Hints:
With 425 residues, the protein is an alpha+beta fold. Helix content is 52%, strand content 8%. It has a domain at 355-422: Arc Repressor Mutant, subunit A, CATH 1.10.10. The protein has helices at 16-26, 29-42, 52-56, 68-71, 78-87, 93-103, 116-123, 127-138, 150-161, 166-174, 176-180, 184-191, 195-205, 252-260, 265-299, 301-306, 316-323, 327-334, 366-378, 388-397, 404-413, 419-422; strands at 46-49, 227-232, 235-240, 247-250, 338-341, 344-347, 355-357, 363-365. GO terms for molecular function: DNA binding; DNA-binding transcription activator activity; nucleotidyltransferase activity; sigma factor activity.
Amino acid sequence: MLNLVVEQKQKIVMTQNLKQAISLLQYSTYDLYQFIHEQHLENPLIEIEETEQYFGNKLSTVNTSNTIEEIVSDEKGMQEMLIEQINELNMSHSMKHILYYLVHNLDENGYLEVGNHELKQLLKINDDILVTAINHLQGLEPVGVGSRDLRECLYLQACYYFPDDCLLQKLVTNHLEDLASRDLRKISDCLNSDILEIENAFSQIQELNPKPCSHLNYINENWIPDIEVKFENNQLIVKLVDDYLPKISFSEKNARLLKTLENQKDYYHRSYQNFKWLLNSIEQRRMTLLSITKAIISIQKEFFEHGISALNPLTMKEVADEIGVHESTISRATKNKVIRTPVGLFDMRVFFSSKLASLDGEFVSREKVKVRMREIISEENKEKPYSDQKISDIFAKEGIEVSRRAVSKYREELNIPSSRNRKQF
């Protein structure tokens, strides 16, 4: 006997236009510039007019086929920016010199590929000092710098940007190969998780940066940022730096031609729909970036006055809730974006860090807690290293509420051994 079973399932169908609209959101302004030119070549109904500001200003001699990386000079590259951060840390001169050495041995993407054994021999240091130094290095911006491989790089970013997403962190730690082969069913069975949840987490992982320092070689005062924030009459004003994008208009001439051709009506209709989609998507990208930046300013005003030291704890979810979008929209929109501020140029993701409550009701950045934890451990008596509970007690005396369990979690994220394994005789 045959039984027919009708099963109803929800399925999200992603059209090509929707995929492109999502991609458009994470484009840098120069990526968008190139994309508009591609659309112009493919769609006869799109006309573009170059603006004099882009090619008539300091970039007038640049070939338009060059990428933005080739346009700007490398006056202040990755090493200089990382060394500036190291100089602001409260640590011994010997530790800073170790960090200087590590920075000068990073590859162009920010990975530390020199092995521990070789580093210990070259620097004449023991395991504990090397672990401490690497933890300091991995605490610098951008998140992921100093990673030893892709897995560690993505894990550091996953913990930083999505600290409460245990599924995402498990996927990065244990299932990168399965994700690469799209074997979601295997992951679902292994983790006992819904496939849709895994797909959502996989989408978040794809927004992480496997080459965290690739852009740092080019962030300098000659860089054309995507967004600019400056003070005018004691108020912070936001402006998208997109004046050099070509002006887009509808080609009446080509439209009349296509309409006269009997067999081109469907092609005309598709071309017209794509023309409208391009205009709408660019405008949506503009409004989203402006809304996100204004929400960041409302929380991070002190940053724009005093710099990194005044950075407040902030998560992508908080900004998403503030402007009424999904958290993944914030992740995509801030990817590949550079912002010029009164205190310098920064990757847009510099503003995001999870937060912890202090005993006086204020909040402190989770990253600041981890930096302080490194300092506490580096200063401990190695014959009697601090237990996780002791570190928790030290934080409590400093007015920061960090449970023993949280200390253990952060210590593991920083690759710091337990007190038993840190003990020296």
